[in-house]
């Protein structure tokens, strides 16, 4: 297994001291004692609800060659292989800084109110075909997730793709300065986390913090299809970035035209100067096509061959919980599941409902069923923003709707008489049995809501009952 850092390099980076370490290098950095590479360094992060120092012993037993621990906790762990530092999160940041300093990779950083993870996966899928690529896993995009991902950046990588998230002002700046991207992409600006901001312009300003870390000569790649574009352009140009836009807007540098989508995927033409690019995706939805256009813009700036990029996008399958489409059961009479259960905000909810509007049940006579859950972290605007979805819910063409969460439940009176209400409950756990009783092979069902509502349990129940088929 290849070395990521020598122990000497770790000590130099962190200023820590070693105790009882016999290994001379590590293969990776992890904060999860249950899932780490052999010969990894385990970092004992302390969070609000957990303290990694409790799992140092388990990490060593599971193959870690050392643990990064705090001075405060070191005496309790005597005898174990340790690197001791004043603060483990800062120690992790120091390792990340060392990884970034030595890297010669072209670095891409991605943020936005919706579509961050999907766009990151699309970009990584393209770049992997062009050279050794390192990319953030899952949605590790916060104050410890980004340092963890950067710390694992191998010196040999040609490209790296990092996702950066936020839910308060001033959170992106230190992460952007750690990543120091050559290209920074903002997928969109919406009202996600509006409960922590005065207005959407403040959200745009927080997203624009990503440009604070741009390398000299850096490129800002921006979705042109939202009202806050000017805020992002101004911030990018203040950093002397070159700006490339994409989207459905008529003046976008990479303009999406002739979009078509249904249950079998989507297609469009992307116009870039005199070039007309035909693109096809397995994933449906105009938002997915916008994500693909952003990924294509990144690849273009990095010199990836057009054919390579289009082939990667054609093969892209949406991740579980983020628009993944699965046909379950018999090939000629399947149940069609659209899994959007990982998260939700007003823009991503509308995008998902627009996809469902274009989808027909897989067989004649099948029902269209929606399971929708609350959108969280919307603060004082929560009720208004939920009520504003009623028109989109009606246009989605569902035969029956299930409502999970206190805000969605309040929509029942506004929708009654137009869409059959299957059931209402507070959580996914409480509503899943009612959903299961209403589903049959031949139906199409979409599950969408914020992760905290627990609609992932509904998805799991559907998968278990109807027997997983092929991911579309």
Q: Can you give me a brief rundown of this structure?
A:
With 472 residues, the protein is α/β, with parallel strands linked by helices. It folds into three domains: 87 residues, MurE/MurF, N-terminal domain (Udp-n-acetylmuramoylalanyl-d-glutamate--2,6- Diaminopimelate Ligase, Chain: A, domain 1), CATH 3.40.1390; 213 residues, UDP-N-acetylmuramoyl-L-alanine:D-glutamate ligase (3-Layer(aba) Sandwich); 143 residues, Mur ligase, C-terminal domain (Protein-Tyrosine Phosphatase, Chain A).
Largest sheet: 9 strands, mixed
User: Could you tell me the mean pLDDT?
Assistant: 94
Query: DSSP strand (E) fraction?
Result: 15-25%
In the CATH scheme, what's the topology name of the largest domain?
UDP-N-acetylmuramoyl-L-alanine:D-glutamate ligase
Sequence of strands across the biggest β-sheet: 9-10-8-11-12-13-14-15-16
CATH superfamily of the largest domain: Mur-like, catalytic domain
DSSP helical segment count: 17
The percent of residues in helical segments reads: 25-40%
Mind telling me the CATH class of the largest domain? Alpha Beta
Structural domain tally: 3
The protein's oligomeric status is single chain
Straight-line N-to-C gap: 34 Å
Low-confidence stretches: none
Which architecture of the largest domain would the CATH scheme give at its second level?
3-Layer(aba) Sandwich
**Could you say which overall geometry the principal axes of the C-alpha atoms support?**
globular
Organism: hydrothermal vent metagenome
InterPro entries: Mur-like_cat_sf, Mur_ligase_C, Mur_ligase_C_dom_sf, Mur_ligase_cen, Mur_ligase_N, MurCDEF_CellWall_CoF430Synth, MurE/MurF_N, UDP-N-AcMur_synth
Domain Mur ligase N-terminal catalytic: 25-74
Protein name: UDP-MurNAc-pentapeptide synthetase
């Amino acid at each position: 297994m290849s070395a990521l850092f020598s122990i000497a390099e770790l000590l130099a980076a962190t200023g820590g001291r070693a105790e009882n370490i016999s290994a001379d290098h590590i293969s990776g950095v992890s904060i999860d004692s249950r899932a780490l590479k052999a010969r990894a360094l385990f970092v004992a992060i302390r969070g609000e609800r957990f303290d990694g120092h409790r799992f140092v012993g388990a990490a060593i037993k599971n193959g870690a060659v050392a643990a990064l621990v705090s001075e405060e906790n070191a005496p309790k762990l005597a005898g174990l292989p340790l690197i001791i530092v004043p603060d483990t999160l800062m120690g992790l940041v120091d390792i990340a800084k060392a990884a970034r300093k030595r890297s010669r990779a072209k670095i891409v950083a991605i943020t936005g109110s919706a579509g961050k993870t999907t766009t990151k996966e699309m970009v990584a899928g393209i770049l992997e075909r062009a050279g050794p690529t390192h990319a953030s896993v899952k949605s590790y995009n916060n104050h410890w997730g980004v340092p963890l991902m950067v710390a694992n950046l191998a010196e040999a990588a040609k490209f790296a793709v990092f996702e950066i998230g936020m839910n308060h002002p001033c959170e992106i700046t230190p992460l952007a300065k750690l990543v120091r991207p050559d290209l920074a992409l903002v997928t969109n600006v919406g009202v996600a986390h509006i409960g922590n901001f005065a207005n959407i312009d403040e959200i745009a300003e927080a997203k624009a913090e990503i440009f604070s870390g741009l390398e000299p000569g850096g490129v800002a790649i921006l979705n042109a299809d939202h009202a806050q574009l000017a805020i992002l352009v101004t911030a990018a140009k203040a950093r002397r970035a070159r700006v490339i836009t994409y989207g459905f807007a008529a003046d976008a540098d990479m303009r999406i035209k002739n979009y078509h989508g249904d249950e079998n995927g989507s297609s469009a033409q992307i116009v870039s100067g005199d070039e007309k690019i035909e693109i096809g995706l397995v994933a449906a939805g105009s938002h997915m096509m916008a994500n693909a256009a952003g990924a294509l813009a990144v690849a273009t700036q990095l010199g990836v061959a057009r054919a390579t990029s289009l082939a990667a996008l054609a093969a892209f399958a949406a991740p579980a919980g983020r628009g993944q489409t699965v046909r379950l059961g018999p090939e000629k009479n399947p149940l069609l599941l659209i899994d959007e259960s990982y998260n939700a905000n007003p823009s991503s909810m509308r995008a998902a409902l627009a996809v469902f509007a274009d989808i027909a049940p897989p067989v004649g006579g099948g029902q269209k069923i929606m399971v929708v859950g609350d959108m969280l972290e919307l603060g004082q605007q929560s009720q208004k923003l939920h009520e504003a979805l009623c028109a989109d819910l009606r246009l989605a063409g569902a035969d029956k709707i299930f409502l999970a969460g206190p805000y969605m439940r309040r929509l029942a009176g506004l929708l009654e008489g137009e869409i059959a209400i299957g059931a209402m409950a507070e959580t996914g756990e409480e509503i899943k049995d009612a959903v299961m009783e209403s589903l049959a092979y031949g139906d199409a069902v979409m599950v969408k809501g914020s992760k905290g509502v627990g609609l992932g349990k509904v998805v799991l129940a559907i998968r278990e009952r109807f027997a997983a088929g092929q991911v579309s």
